[in-house]
Amino acid sequence: METIVKPASFKSEPQKKVKEKKPIKMNGARAVVESLIAEGVDLVYGYPGGAIMPVYDEFYKVQDEIHHVLTRHEQGAVHAAQGYARTSGRVGVAIATSGPGATNLITGLADAQIDSTPIVCITGQVGSSLLGSDAFQETDIVSISTPATKWNFQITKAADIPEVIAKAFYIAGSGRPGPVLIDITKDAQFEEVEFSYEKCKKIRSYHPVPEFDNEKIKDAAELINAAKKPFVVFGQGVILGRAEEEFKSFIEKADIPSASTLLGLSALPTQHKLNHGMVGMHGHYAPNVLTNDCDVLIAVGMRFDDRVTGNLETYAKQAKIIHFDIDPAEIDKNVKTDVAVIGDVKETLVEILPLINKNQHTDWQQKFKDLYKVEFEEIIDKQLNPTKEGITNGEVMKAINNETNGEAIIVSDVGQNQMFSNRYADFKKTKSVVTSGGLGTMGFGLPASIGAKMGAPEREVVVVIGDGGFQMTIQELGTIMQAKVPVKIVVVNNNFLGMVRQWQEMFFDRRYAETVMTTPDFGKIVEGYGIQTKKVTEREELEEAVAEMIASKESYFLEVVVEKEGNVFPMIPAGATVSDVRLK
Amino acid sequence: MEKTLYTVSIYTENNIGLLNRISSIFLKRHINIESLTVSTTEIENVSRFIIVSYMTEEKIKKIIGQIEKQVEVIKAYYHTNEESIYVQTALFKIKSKLLFEKREIQNIIKNSNAQIVTVSPEFFVIEKSGRKEEIEELYQELFPYGIMQFVKSGRISVSKEEMRISEILQKQLN
Questions:
Q1: What is the pLDDT of residue A21?
Q2: What pLDDT is recorded for position B103?
Q3: Which residue among A147, A150, A204 places its CB closest to the CB of B173?
Q4: Which of A26, A397, A442, A499 is catalytic?
Q5: What span, in angstroms and rounded, lies between the C-alpha atoms of A279 and A153?
Q6: What is the distance between the alpha carbons of residues A109 and A509, in angstroms, rounded to a whole number?
Q7: Which residues have a Cβ under 8 Å from the Cβ of B77 and sit 6 or more positions away?
Q8: Pick the catalytic residue: A136, A190, A507, A508?
Q9: SS3 readout for A407-452
Q10: Closest to B28 (Cβ–Cβ): which among A142, A147, A154?
């Protein structure tokens, strides 16, 4: 077992070299770069432009220390930073210029905010004397980004740069992580500053890790020990809190069947005997049905998103609810709890473990297994071992599982491709899921995979994207080409915006409004970027093509033409009760 | 659930962007703000927002959670009218000649415990501090005589319970 360390937070690597403590004179732009180096940053994603040029001039001088990856769009930069943060456990960094450069970051900021991803974005801004004058490429990015950031700040004086950047990294990575945006006026980048750097360790108005209450832990333990049919739903909090081992010990000791949210996947290996899959709209049958049968529901590091709960009026009403979370604002936000254990899960799970009785819930576990059988026969088997014409998304994932031995990081885009790949992926290691959960950002996959690979270069990274999402950020193939990022790209092409089409089929009498898509010859486009490609249209070719892709040392593009009107099931229709999950 | 008028008191760092951040928490949830005041406090560099709004208690608790989550918010509280001492201030600008022509105005001012803050040959200004209803009553009484300008501040309030902000800040720094 991992040794228990201090409250988990996203820390950047220790300083590479001990910088001299005494202040050194430099310009603000240099101070930005030195601050990043002091935070252990050795990789940033970005796109230059007028108002950030002084900072780029300094990046040019420190290429040995900071690798700047030029994306093809600022949205690509911020998603790459997110992918990096998710697989490395460090704070991701994206750089952009003022005006359109800055506004192009917004989707990624909103995505990181709702999915609690620690990133720091630095934007250039027009000179402070021009602020408010509608100057060229001026936009009020601080106001625009406010609801999409954990914290943001505009620097107009070079002297503020080290302290503000230190705060930015501390805030982004501590407690419940999130995105921070720092906007720096051009004059502040030119202005001279006496540089000295001190990492931020405390902000008096900010308590990232609330102290836990022993009484609540006792109350929770009592409920768990008395439970006949306990059920755990775990989320990304387990991964963000680096509490995978503590979590496993907890559920194993009490023998509690568990299921994950989308972002919680891979916190517990897929094959673990207590892992019954995923909850929510396209989650697994057993955990959804039995949510409304359990007597104690233990939520660990998750936020009861509407895609998880369905109709709140009928969600687990029979159960006592225990909620472990680091963010007090999540308690009772959507689901009323009986016992709220606020705090860092790495601490609270350690604390509760000795109070939990060793237990066995054989009959209750059997219920999960029985319902799995139903789902297997109705859905899973047909996806993995289809007899019909048309390649299924499930068999694509099965081939990837086989070739990677479940060791790969699976990045997905949004829609059917996302639900299929996460439902059928066999995760063995934590931090193996990179996807846009809360915001559902189409176009996230390709740029996020760049960051995912660079954040965990020793691991295989496979990104699965639909033909729609691929075309939203297709330009990042240029980044993959230039930065030589060996990601394996799988486009599952059904010539449809599949998820919306599925809803149209089910709820709009098959009126396929604007979901039919004529796609270009992807192979030709990708070849233009010098990336090896293959297109598979027949089932017999699939395994070999996936094997070739995984064996490749370089980036590789595989297009799989999948069945046109395949649907993702099970499904809880929006607003329906979890236990009314449909198998067809 | 029934909506009640709550006074939200938020102790914060003195930061330029915070007003935006806090008001957007209300905006996002379609909650109308009846009044909003920001001022300095008994502690140096600490600001206090006082926001008055109609809400259910369930909703206000969630709002407080979201407010306290903001990095630069030190602490947020909510109180009902019974739990706090609160006033608003209003200014009435009225033609000076009315003061001499309509003697009743002098009685209205006296009976309402309002004060005359300035008098010039053209106009005079009455200041009235008190509860919303008292200010409205004075407005109704003065209205028939002609009011040149009228303005009313947001609510300011202090709670009956202790806030212990200094203690919280001290604890944070240790």
A1: 63
A2: 85
A3: A204
A4: A499
A5: 38
A6: 36
A7: B8, B9, B10, B64, B159, B163
A8: A136
A9: CCEEEECCCHHHHHHHHHCCCCCCCCEECCCCCCCCCCHHHHHHHH
A10: A147
Residue keyed to tokens 């003022």: A98
pLDDT digits (tens, 9 = 90+) for A532-576: 999 999 999 999 999 999 999 999 999 999 999 999 999 999 999
CA atoms of A351 and A504, how far apart (whole Å):
49
Q: What is the ipTM, given to two decimal places? A: 0.90
Closest-CA residue to B98 (of B152, B150, B144): B144
Q: Answer yes or no: are the C-beta atoms of A73 and A48 closer than 8 Å.
A: no
- Interface A-B, measured as beta-carbon pairs within 8 A, has a size of 51
Are A327 and B69 a contacting pair at CB < 8 A?
Answer: yes
Give residue ranges of B with CB < 8 Å to any A CB: 12-13, 17, 20-21, 24, 28, 61-62, 65-66, 68-69, 71-74, 169, 172-173
Tell if the CB–CB gap between A205 and B66 is shorter than 8 Å.
Answer: no
Tokens matching residue A505: 């089929």
Asked about A150 being catalytic, the answer comes back as no
- Distance CA(A509)–CA(A401), nearest Å, equals 36
Integer-rounded Cα radius of gyration of chain B: 20
Q: pLDDT by residue (tens digit) across A118-164?
A: 999 999 999 999 999 999 999 999 999 999 999 999 999 999 999 99
Using a CB-CB cut-off of 8 Å, the residues of chain A touching B169 are 204-205
Cis peptide before A486, with omega less than 30 degrees from 0? no
DSSP state of A577: B
Nearest to A433 by CA among A213, A278, A254: A278
Which residues does chain B have within 8 Å of residue A340's beta carbon, measured at their own beta carbons?
A: none
Q: How far is B78 from chain A (nearest CA, A)?
A: 15
What separation, in Å, do the N-terminal and C-terminal C-alpha atoms of chain B show? 41
Instruction: Answer yes or no: do B72 and A171 touch at CB < 8 A.
Output: no
**A contacts of B20 (beta carbons < 8 Å):** 143, 146
**B76 Cα to chain A: minimum distance (Å):** 11
pLDDT confidence bin for B102, thresholds 50/70/90? confident
d(CA A310, CA A168): 36
Distances (CA, A) of B99 to A319, B142, B150: 71, 11, 17
φ, ψ of residue B157 in degrees (nearest 5): -155, 155
Residue A58, SS3? helix
Residues 6+ apart with CB under 8 A from A211: A343
Give chain A's end-to-end CA distance (angstroms, integer): 42
CA torsion, ordered A342, A344, A346, A351, to nearest 10 deg: -40
Among A204, A209, A337, A342, most B C-beta atoms within 10 A, so best to mutate, is A204
For residue A49, pLDDT beyond 50: yes
Which residues, other chains included, contact B6 with Cβ-Cβ below 8 Å and sequence gap of 6+?
B52, B53, B54, B55, B60, B78, B79, B80
How close, in Å, is residue B165 to chain A by CA atoms?
A: 10
Could you tell me which residues come within 8 angstroms of residue A184 by beta carbon, excluding any fewer than 6 positions away? A28, A32, A52, A55, A122, A123, A124, A125, A154, A155, A161
Other CB atoms within 10 A of residue A159 CB: 16
A136 has catalytic annotation: yes
| H or E segment and range at residue B150 | strand B149-152
Q: Does residue A16 register a pLDDT over 90? A: no
**pTM of the predicted model, to two decimals?**
0.94
